[in-house]
Write a structure and sequence with these properties.
6-stranded mixed beta sheet; globular; alpha/beta; single chain; binds iron/sulfur cluster; 34% helix; 2 domains
């Protein structure tokens, strides 16, 4: 099947999805979300279901979680238009609740047919409902970052699944951000291995025999294949991040982040796909957060000075020295103070 034939076939499925009434989810949707991406990609991301932003725009992963997904892709040198992105269910569950088993079953035919057309080498599962489709019985906490052969009954005849958390999970549990970075960093090598296995088995997609190039919509053959050939892994700082031994340091992502601090390119202030709290752009540097004392200590309003007619006692000299030091400290610009013994790092 040529890329044009794939694109046309995917378009026909999308048209069916937009008018589908096979399950109760069609009643509450604004727009169905069939999925989108490059018709000749070998990597398909499968999430859970549309969130509020997706429901309004009819596109997958366009909220804050989508911004994080794009950022994670950027870390390995890929763009979202080089892969295909879709969900287990194509219509938004009310209130972003979990999709019901019968809803997943009703919608499974669309996903199966998309995978039959795309014939991916790698399916990246995002979240537990996608994981349950491609790795039945697996738990996301113990399976993320691992790879398993996909049952051809899913529509992917010769593929492996790479399990990952849903990006929105990082908004609820900040340390999962590092886990997502580490798991995504493995994707180029997973694709190389899967592609090599398909070539060895004679299952390579039409026109791709050595994994060297992949035509892009603009006519070029760069980026995806070249990124895979020379994976853009972040530098390994040898840091044990969030319980992921050996995980690469997040060189480009902001450093220590608060629970709701999220970076999503172009989506500051947007809500996560699954309806989580509104998020804001994270800090711009890796500076540790410090518990600083007040920047200026007020001088005492009045001081009992000793009688001028006599020499001061040693205790009085010590008190005067402390008062003079406090006054000097208050007059010193904040950036020039030695506060290292007053900081509380966390
Ligand atoms: S979720 Fe899937 S099966 Fe249900 S109405 Fe939407 S497209 Fe149809």
């Amino acid at each position: 099947m040529t890329p044009e034939e794939r694109s046309a076939a995917l378009g026909r499925i999308a048209d069916e999805v937009r008018t589908c009434t096979a399950c109760r989810l069609h009643r509450g949707r604004t727009r169905a979300v069939p999925g989108e991406g490059h018709p000749d990609t070998e990597v398909v991301f499968v999430g859970e279901g549309p969130g509020q932003n997706e429901d309004q725009q009819g596109r997958p992963f366009v909220g804050a979680a989508g911004g994080l997904l794009e950022e994670l892709l950027g870390r390995i040198g890929w763009r979202r238009d080089e892969v295909f992105i879709t969900n287990v269910v194509k219509c938004r569950p009310p209130g972003n609740r979990d999709p019901e088993p019968d809803e997943i079953a009703a919608c499974s035919g669309f996903l199966r047919r998309q995978l039959e057309i795309l014939d991916p080498a790698v399916i990246v599962t995002l979240g537990r409902f996608s994981l349950g489709t491609f790795m039945p019985g697996a738990k996301i906490s113990s399976t993320h970052g691992t790879v398993r052969a996909v049952d051809p009954a899913t529509g992917a005849s010769s593929a492996v699944a790479l399990a990952m958390y849903h990006p929105a999970a990082a908004f609820r549990q900040a340390n999962l951000r590092d886990t997502l970075v580490a798991d995504m960093a493995n994707l180029p090598q997973v694709l190389l291995d899967a592609r090599a296995a398909r070539v060895a088995a004679g299952d390579a997609k039409d026109g791709v025999e050595d994994g060297a190039t992949r035509p892009m919509e603009d006519g070029s053959t760069e980026s995806q294949a070249s990124a895979v050939a020379t994976p853009h892994r972040p530098p390994d700082a040898g840091t044990d991040l969030a319980g992921s031994p050996g995980a690469p340091a997040p060189a480009a992502l902001p450093g220590p982040v608060a629970e709701t601090a999220v970076v999503g390119p172009g989506t500051p202030g947007a809500s996560p796909d699954t309806g989580g709290p509104a998020v804001s752009e994270g800090p711009a540097t890796d500076e540790p957060t410090v518990d600083r004392p007040p920047q200026s200590d007020p001088l005492p309003e009045s001081v009992d000075l000793p009688e001028p007619a006599r020499l001061p006692e040693p205790e009085e000299i010590e008190a005067l020295t402390e008062i003079a030091a406090a006054a000097a400290d208050a007059a010193t610009p904040p950036g020039e103070r030695d506060e290292t013994d007053q900081m509380t790092l966390f």
